[in-house]
Specification:
Layout: E1 11-14, H1 19-30, E2 35-38, H2 44-51, E3 56-60, H3 69-81, E4 86-91, H4 93-106, E5 110-114, E6 125-130, E7 133-138, E8 146-149, H5 159-176, H6 184-206, H7 211-231, H8 235-247, H9 251-266, H10 271-281, H11 286-296, H12 313-321, H13 334-346
Parallel strand pairs: 1-8, 2-3, 2-4, 4-5, 5-8
Antiparallel strand pairs: 6-7
The chain binds nicotinamide-adenine-dinucleotide.
């Protein structure tokens, strides 16, 4: 067993029902005096309650999914103009993503307060979209210095978005089992992430305002993101990045739809990983377990429901083919990708 695993330097605080006080403590530890608070309009009310007593120099509300470069440029200019010394992001992956775009060019530290299960806060991966193409990269400057998790902040996340976002976290786990840099540490985190998510997410559906299911799901989402941060993007993520960048499909829902098709495709080629995932899902096979979970939470079903047209499948397949990760457990042809994408488009059996 020979591998190199890099553990990312980050302070992670789980603070149920006490994000405001915890955030103030963490900003104090950083000795930040001029904060740029990034929170979209939808997360504005949540942010109001968290930053009232902080040294805020600037509130920035222009957030857009997949971080268009022009949105990033405006945020970077605003940060510079106001002489901020730290960034506080309060929101989902899009908000964290914008803070990362600012940190990438400024080196400013980020304190992230996530309000979805996207997991971007635990990775050093940034993403920017320009002219219909999403570019991602890895840079230690964008890794948030501190993450403050408070599951009560997710109680306003609508159930449909909670499901999609929770399945995005499941996708981090599954893809981490075969991604290019996967190692035994990532796989241990991923399997435990699946365990937490498959029990937490149905609880969120049964009791959307309850804390227990949200906490378990949030913890699973964090484990998933740490695994993904180390293992890198596998075939599933490459497919979703292409679809998000080229067709502006919603991130979490796209992950939720595509995952069973990639698991059906790759799963048989990784029997050991498949067995471990099946055990974590408590099901005869990983795919059975995922499909059971998807049925229980009424998961998003088809890419056509999110705006992809059947006529766009061939071009998407071409674009994914150029990005197939090295070392994918089985060979991937253009025909394979057309088949996977077409099935996901129509919501067919995987
Ligand atoms: P998002 O941040 O766009 O949020 C989805 C919607 O939910 C938005 O309308 C938002 O305003 C709303 N929302 C968020 N939190 C809420 C809350 N608590 N209550 C009510 N509404 C709330 O979506 P996302 O799925 O969290 O993130 C997607 C983005 O994150 C994509 O751009 C994706 O590429 C990126 N991402 C990056 C990484 C990484 O490692 N770099 C990992 C995961 C996702």
């Amino acid at each position: 067993m020979r591998f190199t695993h890099e553990t990312l330097p980050q302070r992670v605080v789980f603070a149920p029902s006490s994000a405001a006080g915890t955030l103030a403590d963490e900003v104090g530890r950083l000795e930040a005096r001029r904060l740029m608070v990034i929170a979209g309009e939808a997360e504005g009310a949540l942010a109001d309650g968290l930053v009232a007593d902080l040294p805020v120099a600037l509130r920035h509300t222009e957030v857009a999914m997949h971080v268009p470069v022009e949105v990033a440029d405006r945020a970077r200019a605003a940060a510079q103009q106001h002489g901020v010394d730290a960034l506080v992001s309060i929101g989902g992956g899009s908000t964290t993503g914008l803070a990362k775009a600012v940190a990438l060019t400024s080196g400013l530290p980020i304190v992230a307060v996530p309000t979805t299960y996207a997991g971007s806060e635990a990775t050093a991966v940034w993403g920017l979209t320009e002219g219909g193409r999403k570019t991602t990269g890895v840079d230690p400057r964008v890794l948030p210095r501190v993450v403050v998790y408070d599951a009560t902040l997710l109680s306003t996340l609508p159930v449909g978005l909670s499901v999609a976002s929770g399945l995005n976290a499941v996708a981090h786990c599954v893809d981490s089992m075969w991604a290019p840099r996967t190692d035994p540490v990532d796989q241990a985190l991923a399997v435990e992430g699946i365990r937490a998510l498959r029990s937490g997410l149905p609880e969120v559906i049964r009791d959307p305002r309850g804390l227990h299911g949200r906490e378990r799901t949030l913890c699973g989402a964090y484990l998933a993101a740490v695994a993904f941060a180390s293992a890198g993007s596998g075939l599933h993520h490459k497919i979703c990045h292409v679809l998000g960048g080229m067709y502006d499909l919603p991130h979490a829902q796209t992950h939720a739809v595509v995952l069973p098709y990639v698991l059906a495709f790759n799963g048989p080629s990784v029997p050991d990983a498949e067995r471990r995932m099946a055990a974590a899902f408590d099901a005869p096979s990983a795919l059975d377990g995922l499909q059971r979970l998807r049925a229980e939470v009424d998961a998003p079903r088809a890419l056509r429901d999110y705006g992809l047209r059947a006529s766009e499948v061939p071009a998407a397949a071409d674009a994914v083919l150029r990005e197939v990760p090295p070392g994918n457990p089985r060979t991937v042809t253009r025909d394979d990708l057309v088949e996977v994408l077409h099935r996901a488009w129509e919501g067919a059996e995987p």
